[in-house]
Amino acid sequence: MKALIGLLLLVFGHDVSSVIHSLQTFETASSGLSTFPEYVTVQMVDEVQVEYYDSNTQRIITKQDWVDQANEDKVPDYLERVTERRKGDQQVAKANMGTLKKRFNQTGGAHIVQTMYGCEWDDEDGTTEGYEQHGYDGEDFLSLDLTTLTWVAPVHQAFTTKLRFDHDRAYNQYKKNYYTKECVDDLKKLLAYGKSTLQRTERPQVSLLQRSPSSPVVCHATGFYPDRVVVFWRRDGQELHEQVDPGEVLPNHDGTFQVSVELYLTAVPQEDWGRYECVVQLKGIEDISTPLDPAHIRTNGGDNHILAFILTGVAVVAAFAVVVGVFLYQKRNDSEKCHKPVDSDTSSENSEGQKLAPEYQPLSTGQS
C-alpha cells in the first residue's frame, strides 16, 4: 500500500503534511519449517514493532517501554490476558493449517497461513480504514469487506468459509465496530503514550553513491524518521519522471529508515551533471537539496562505501523479513503445490448438515 502511495506521489506531486497512522497485527502459522516457530504474532504501531509472541516462548514480549505503561493503564493484567488469548489463537491457527491442507489436498511440504488485520487513521482529516486479510501459501485466501459486511473468497477452497462467515451477521457487526472504533481508539491512545518516539522527526543523511562510472548514481537517504519521506531527482529545477528508479523505504536497525533513488546518466555528458540535484522532503524539516557533483560521489574505490551500503541493505532486508515479514505472503513455486480441486460445497457438511471436516476458524481479533 505504501509503495503504491509513494509511486503516486512521484507521479502526481508530493504532500508530506498529512500522516496516516496505523495499528496492525500480523499472525503467521507455519508447517514444515523447522527453523521458524509454528505460530508468530507481531503487533506494530506506525510500522514500529511494539509486541511479539511466538509458540516457542509462549509469552508476550513488549518492544517499547511506553507500551508497558499504556497496557497497564488499559487493563491491569493486560500481558497475562493477552498471552492467554495468543495461546488460544495459536491452537486455532494450527487447526486452520490442517483445514487448509485438506482443502487444497496437500500432505507434506512447507505451508504458511497468514492473517493481517488492523486500522489506519489520518490525523489531518480524521478518516479511518480497517481491514482483515487471510492468505495461504503466498495467495489471498479470504478478506473482509467492511462496506458490505461480507467476505471475499478469491479461491474456491475458501467459498464455504465465506458463506459461513457471511451468515454470522453478529460476528461481522462486531468486526466492523472493532475496526472502525475500538481499534482506532486503541491506536490514538498508543500514539499518545508513544508520542516522543512515534511522532519525532529525525533528519536524514544524504549521500551520492555509484558502483562504477557506467552505473546509475544513487541518491541514498538514511537515518530519517518517520518513514513518510519523498526523494526525487530534478534537472534544471524540474522533477524527473524518466531516467529514475525509486526504491522502497526500508528500516534500519535503530528504528530509523533508509531509501534510495537511482538516476541513469549513460547518455548525459559529465559537464551537464551540474544541472541535476537530488531532493529529500520530510515533514518538519526544510527540503534537502544535493547537487550532482562528481567530486562528492562515493564510489567502489578506496573505502568501499558502495559495497558497505549494499551489504547493509541486504542485512536490513533479511532482518526485517524475519521480524516483520510474517505478514508478507511467502511466494512458493507452483511445482511445490498441488492444485487438485476440492468440492468445497460438499466437503464440509453432509445432507443432514453434520460436519465432516474441520472448518476454518476466525481468530479472537481485538479481544482482551
From TrEMBL:
Membrane-spanning segments: 306-329
UniProt gene name: LOC115529326
Organism expressing this protein natively: Gadus morhua (Atlantic cod)
Residue ranges annotated for the Ig-like domain, each copy included: 204-289
Keyword field: Glycoprotein, Membrane, Signal, Transmembrane, Transmembrane helix
SUPFAM superfamilies the UniProt entry points to: Immunoglobulin (SSF48726), MHC antigen-recognition domain (SSF54452)
Record's keyword annotation contains Glycoprotein: yes
Family note: Belongs to the MHC class I family.
Ranges of compositional bias, category Polar residues: 344-353
GO BP: immune response
Signal peptide: 1-18
One Pfam family, short name: MHC_I
Keyword Transmembrane part of the UniProt annotation: yes
Region (Disordered): 335-368
Identification of the protein by name: Major histocompatibility complex class I-related gene protein-like
GO cellular component: external side of plasma membrane; extracellular space
InterPro entries: Ig-like_dom (IPR007110), Ig-like_dom_sf (IPR036179), Ig-like_fold (IPR013783), Ig_C1-set (IPR003597), MHC_class-I_related (IPR050208), MHC_I-like_Ag-recog (IPR011161), MHC_I-like_Ag-recog_sf (IPR037055), MHC_I/II-like_Ag-recog (IPR011162)
Superkingdom classification of source: Eukaryota
